[in-house]
Amino acid sequence: MGDQAWWRSAVIYQVYIRSFADGDGDGLGDIAGLHAELDHLVSLGVDAIWINPWYPSPFADAGYDVSDFRAIEPRFGTLDDAERLIAAAHERGLRVLLDIVPNHTSDQHVWFQAALAAGPGSPERERYIFRDGRGPDGELPPNDWRSAFHGPAWTRITEADGTPGPWYLHLFAPEQPDVNWHHPDVHADFLETLRFWFDRGADGFRIDVAHSLVKEDGLPDIAERDWAKLPFRLEPAPGVHQTDHPHWDRDEVHDIYREWRRTADAYDPPRVFVAEAWVPDPSRAARYLRPDELHTAFNFDFLRSRWNAADLRGVVDDTMREHRSVGATPTWVLSNHDVARHVSRFARPQQTGVRGHHLNDLAADHDLAVGTRRARAAAMLMFALPGSCYVYQGEELGLPEVEDLPDASLQDPTWFRSNGTDRGRDGCRVPIPWTADPSTNFGFSHTVAPAAPAAPWLPQPSWFAAYAADVQRGVAGSMLELYRSCLARRRADPALGDGELAWMPSPAGSLVFVREPGFGCVVNVDAEPLPLPAGWTPVLGSGDLVDGLVPPDTTVWCHR
Ligand code: TEU
After folding, report:
1. Hey, which of 19, 206, 208 would you mutate to test ligand 1's pocket, going by the most ligand atoms within 8 Å of its Cβ?
2. Is residue 398 a contact partner of residue 378, using CB atoms and an 8 Å limit?
């Protein structure tokens, strides 16, 4: 399995297991389906996979409500299936990252059930964050914190004798109570979970909401903070720094990751971490990547950037500077299971001043052909930048967001908790198309004819047929073949992956940079058609040159 610092250059494919491949025809993706399609990932040319939570779950938040961290959801398979999958991936040279969810458990987790049963003042309740309500009868939440899925971050329980009890904290859905990271049991149990999966071959973990675990003592109101006098948003507007936030990015959270790093480093080869931390200040984000903490973090500033040369350049420069300051390697990501697919984001006008990752924030008028062209150019920019990259399943097929899922099919807690005003994240989670055959859920479900599979857990639109993997395979100019070509060249070219870049002068609206030895990248975002620098020979383009010039919305890789 080679180089121990593999993660510094890796292309990591995100497997949203519910929607990747369905091995048993029940309409929900599973381990058998993933196992059967591993060769697709090998031929795509990725280095590793990250699998979204596959643990037992009531699925109140699509598996991020975990009821047992050291087992497999029966609808996905068994622990044996999981171990065989990891081994099969390793045989093919693919590393495997799992997903750990340390901020909360499911309300069905034995700890939370014990906490409810044990009653007020019990040690069992200390593992979560229970507080009495405010108001004369405790009928108001203990503070003003909000759930990421709308509504208050608190739910009041009813005690066994029928009396109204205290409230418990949930920064996400009520079915996801936050655990108390001031409790030693919580530390010990998550370390045991890390070791459990490391012992079974996992190469590392993606850490869910890595910046939220520690809450400020006393749980003060957010409204007390000066910056909170500005309108509240989950993520602040650009330039607004939520310093000293009572539940995001507390300094004490770093002690947890030092503990985790020691655990990962005790393995041979050492296991690795990637933080999901929506920390808007790049210098604060870099603190998670100090040498004794986490290895990498998702670069959400890149994901959120408009298709605008000045913004992109700013993100690249900030990223490189802050990562260099702690000796860490950057990552680049365009899409994941929480944001609208980037073909659809880039199909919107980009000069409106909005940095959106939900389509709610973006103008309605759009042109998917434009979005697709930009998505191709953006992928080639991403794969040329120094560091490691993430590919969200389906982006290699050029899938747009499914924007018109029927209301009755929606499952994201965001939809329910916003009373149907925020459609949430289901539109990027629709099971992906493998073939043009609708009778097998476009090849997503692997049932043998004449057995018909159950309907997929989210309905697939008929236009998915045109995006199917086997419709694109071997077809020059398809998104799938573009991704394969990029990844093959990236693997073969010593200039790509980890390292540095140097900008070349170029007109406004474009980005031109070199990487040594001998690589050059030209990105025309929205400039006039651009000549290639003297002595550069094109080797791969997201689109064709026109009269020898690089047109707008196009990236070209060159030898120089
Ligand atoms: O997401 C954390 C997070 O803060 C956001 O991405 C959030 O989902 C979004 O802003 C809501 O609109 C992680 C997971 O990636 C997400 O799927 C889970 O729902 C969430 O944690 C809770 O575990």
Report:
1. 208
2. no
